[in-house]
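ESCALATION

Customer reports they have been waiting on this structure for their group meeting. Please prioritize. Original submission:
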Amino acid sequence: MKTQEDMKKELHAWIVKNNAKIKAEELCNDTDIIRERIINSLQIIDLLLFVERLSGTSVEVEQLKPGAFKNIDTIYQNFLERQGDEQCNK
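Update from on-call: job pushed to the front of the queue and completed.
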């Protein structure tokens, strides 16, 4: 089972890998990846697919709301936190 820290590290690594403009040490969990143009609108789909692979579940349309991909912390809260809670309850 992946921990919260593990999942956030994987998100961090994916974002850095997919954007040559930012260095790993410049990206924090609360960095606004949309406003800072670290991730563009076309990359959101790839990020969504990565989140689905990371969580092992599909993202429901209802979860796709403004601000859902604001930063690593927000992505974790919106898409991965529940997954971690469900695994703990098993």
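Sent to customer with the following note: DSSP finds three helices and no strands in the chain.
Escalation resolved.
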